Amino acid sequence: MSEMYIKFLGTGGARYVVAKQLRYSAGIFLHACGQNVMIDPGPGTLVRMAKSKPRIDIENITAVIATHSHIDHINDINILIDAMTEGGDKKRGRLFAPRECLEGEDAVIFSYLRNFPEDIVTLEEKTSYEIGDLKFTTSIRHRHTAETYGLIFSIEGKKVSFLPDTGFFDGLRESYAQSDVLIVNTVLRSFKPGASERHLSFDDLETLIELLSPGKLAMTHFGMGMLKARPWELAQELSGRSGIEVIAASDGMRLDL
Questions:
Q1: Number of domains in the chain
Q2: Would you say 92 and 120 are in contact if contact means Cβ atoms under 8 Å apart?
Q3: DSSP secondary structure string, 117-182?
Q4: pTM
Q5: Is residue 2 very low, low, confident or very high in pLDDT (cuts 50, 70, 90)?
Q6: Per-residue pLDDT averaged across 11-18, rounded?
Q7: What is the number of helices (H) and of strands (E) in the chain?
Q8: Long-range contacts of 149-153 (CB under 8 A, 24+ apart)
Q9: CATH number of the domain encompassing residue 218
Q10: What is the pLDDT of residues 141-200, one digit of tens each?
Q11: Which domain holds residue 101?
């Protein structure tokens, strides 16, 4: 069996952290089942791919997935399409994104790039997709200010889930329960009126663990409050209370599957 892993090219979220690049805002790279997938290519993704050790070659990317249309998740999506197809000279790679990313006045994909990939696929909730031998399903629609779906991958019999931006609601159980690995965008340190309706906080994680019973949980996409609170220490404390392994991702960190 070949190696399979996730690499966090960036772990920053929220406007201030992204604007100041206190943590990088690049996407998450998934290598599994013979596929190389870039998820949520935020600002700086192409640069972080080039500087990754080992380097992640853009020509080897087989798919790009956007969970929603916000700039900290899709800023580099057009340059990735252009680069992985060598300016359209080689028609390759697949793009997956919600309808809001692809249609209407706020569409984020440049029109001249739309014929460059092999295929552009519209994501819908609770729907199954394939990238070669790599299979994934979208989650229930999230509670966020853009059309947002999480990603649930089936990898060698394991359930590997990416839970992006959302406010907390019990319906998350339907999609993410019993994940072997659960990656959670943890933007806020604690409940914040207004913001907590569209982003998860660290205080939500204990309830989330009780609701979903994951095998392992990794936090990422940190806002300023989380960085000030030292997420690696919070992760250690939550591991002790919950009895499961909780990890605070760091820029460039590799998580083997």
A1: 1
A2: no
A3: SSEEEEE-TT-EEEETTEEEEE-SPPSSSS----EEEEETTEEEEEE-S----TTHHHHHTT-SEE
A4: 0.97
A5: confident
A6: 96
A7: 9, 14
A8: 149/67, 149/68, 149/98, 149/123, 149/124, 149/125, 150/67, 150/175, 150/176, 151/39, 151/65, 151/67, 152/176, 152/179, 153/30, 153/32
A9: 3.60.15.10
A10: 999 999 999 999 999 999 999 999 999 999 999 999 999 999 999 999 998 888 889 999
A11: 5-256
3 state SS of 257: coil
Beta sheet of 28-32, edge-to-edge order: 119-123, 94-98, 63-65, 35-39, 28-32, 5-8, 254-256
Report the candidate in 67, 77, 231, 243 with the shortest Cα–Cα distance to residue 164: 67
List all residues 6 or more positions away from 128 whose beta carbon is below 8 Å from its beta carbon.
135, 136, 137
> Which is it for the CA torsion 164, 165, 168, 171, positive or negative?
negative
